[in-house]
Amino acid sequence: MALSGLEIYKQLPKKNCGECGVPTCLAFAMALSSGKAALDTCPYVTDVARENLASASAPPIKAITFGNGTVMGDETVMFRHDKTFYHETTLIVQVSDALSDDEVSVKLAEINGLEFDRVGLHYSLEGVAIVNESGDAARFAKVAATVAAGTEKSILLISDDPAALKAALVPLASRKPLIGEANADNYEAIVNLAKENSVPVILKAEGLDALNDLVEKATALGYKEFVLDPGSKTTVQKLADLTQLRRLAIKKKFRAFGYPVLVFTNHTDPLEEIMEASVYVAKYASAVVLKTSAKALLLTLMTLKQNIYTDPQKPIQVEPKLHSVGDVNENSPFYITTNFSLTYYCVEGEVESSKIPSYILPIDTEGTSVLTAYAAGKFEPEYIWDSITKSGVMDKIKHRNIIIPGYVAVVSGKLKELSECNVIVGPRESSGIVAFTKTLN
Fold first, then answer.
1. Among residues 67, 130, 206, 338, which is most buried (max CB within 10 A)?
2. What is the CATH number of domain 64-309?
3. What digits encode the pLDDT tens for the residues 358-415?
4. Which of 70, 63, 262 shows the shortest CA–CA distance to 176?
5. Cβ(133)–Cβ(98) under 8 Å?
6. CATH 3.40.50.11600 fits 323-437, yes or no
7. What is the number of other CB atoms lying within 10 angstroms of the CB of residue 252?
8. Is the pTM value of this prediction over 0.90?
9. Domain extents for the chain?
10. What is the rounded distance in angstroms from the CA atom of residue 362 to the CA atom of residue 341?
11. Is the pLDDT of residue 81 over 80?
12. Residue 147's closest CA among 86, 106, 198, 208?
């Protein structure tokens, strides 16, 4: 269990030097106990005290890294507005070793094709789970080797047979796969296998009491690189267990549950499976293993994940530099907008649809939309003209026309005076750009 602030204070040097950024050692101890400070910021803590306080200074949920650098856990809050979420839910698609070689190749090609670009962000699948459904250790090892050779994504090896896991793991140990699942019957063999190869292991037990017992037994083997699977049978129970695990780890500092949590989807219908997975992404799953590799469906899940794990205090932004759409020339129209990603890509998409090569300059408004930026004083004529000048666009076009969003028509007069350009008030909504271009000379 985590130490209290007073218990931590007893082991600090009590210099009250302030070098840690907190005025007193007592205040530092209180911050450390609540997870708002790091022990390393105290330059005078002794080695003995450091060892004793290690659990108090560690994050409530341990960070587990596997594969090509995929990180799970290392979370400190229940809700992102409390602080922030650090690691997005890892999305994994499973490949059964019961498939034929040709079917494995097709599935692998689908998985490698799960790459998307949306509003300036790149989405991709993080991992592939090879599942031992054939019951044949040799077949499992062969399919695992095929998948590993065909993708750079992080690898999971899923079997309850220690011999099958060993056959698949040993040739792939350098890829640092996540292996499992260890249960009450096989945990010694599988945890020791993970320990020997320095890879993380999934611990599975149905029910939180049974899971707690399994974690304690596995920890007694001298290893702590765990990922938990509560083994819940239904979506409702999975949601309840995920919430309880997160609450116990964060609020109660219950160390047995201070590990990332992985869940498998139950539904076989792809659409229902995506809907199920969205519940786990929204509520605390560190990783979700899916069956479907349908591109259209997984894009919706990745979009949801990105929305949840975007820091609400840092809007998605594009680089505030001059952008070209199409084969621009000295006669190309010149549009002004903000660098909020959604705003910019709406404008860019409509400009592309107009089939008229154009310049677009997103003004740095710290990722806010047009009206929000204007209301906050970030879209003023002086700042807009300064940005235009620095972009060098006026050296690229021979006309002196600047197209501004219709919602900020009020800045047109002052901007015209500053720039000595012809300031054209464009449509209020980006959807009006195509029709608007037909009015340009």
1. 338
2. 3.20.20.20
3. 999 999 998 889 999 999 899 999 999 999 999 999 999 999 999 999 999 999 999 9
4. 70
5. yes
6. yes
7. 12
8. no
9. 5-57, 64-309, 323-437
10. 9
11. no
12. 106
